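Appendix B, example 12.
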Amino acid sequence: MLRRRWTVCGRYDSMGLVRTMLITGASGGIGAAVVRAAADHGYRVMAAGRDALRLDQLCAETPQTTAVLLDLRRPDDLPDSLIELDRLDAIVHCAAVADVASVEDTPYPLWLETLTVNVAAAAEITRRLLPALRNAVGHVVFVNAAPDTHAVPRWSAYAASKVALRELADSLREEEACLGLRVTTIYPGSTATELLQKVRAQFGRPFNPADCIQPATLASVVLTVLDMRDDAYLPELSVLPTPRP
């Protein structure tokens, strides 16, 4: 089995190759923070998303980062730059949509988009890249919903997609354990992103970034998970904002 080694300037595998990470949802708040943290830790980063302007700006500001235009509403149409990968050390799935609507007001196209972007795309990307992940004895990280997100009125499509994402992660973990692939699910509490601000507004609830986990903090948790030594890993963990008096 390949072993990792650490240097001051980067992350390398046992063959001296720079470690490569794919991050989906890279144009969002959490994804962009993970891109920056991974690049700071010396990874070669593939930043995937569908907002070309934001991706270009992110990559221009972040070394060792390549933009990958990827529309997760059509996950069967992956770019050649991903399909042709021989090895991949990590995937971090950060992408999500989270429209607020009652069951009555959630038509089939919204269900389809939510389930596709939030879970089916993660499944398809992981499936297509399993050979590259296996070659690197890699790690897959799924950024899920807040802990105990369950039966939320006016949020059924989102909640259902995140339950499905947990089941995907748990099944993948069991199936790939014999090959050394590690699978981690992270359940972050309220995180200060544009998406949360939009969701809070749709629910008619206040949004105060100071009361939330900062994206850079959550990104540091992701990198801690990925950089653990080879004798142990975290299959799942919850991250909560610090309580305020």
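The beta strands are 5-6, 11-12, 20-24, 44-49, 65-69, 90-93, 139-143, 182-188, 236-239. The domain at 5-237 is CATH 3.40.50.720 (Rossmann fold).
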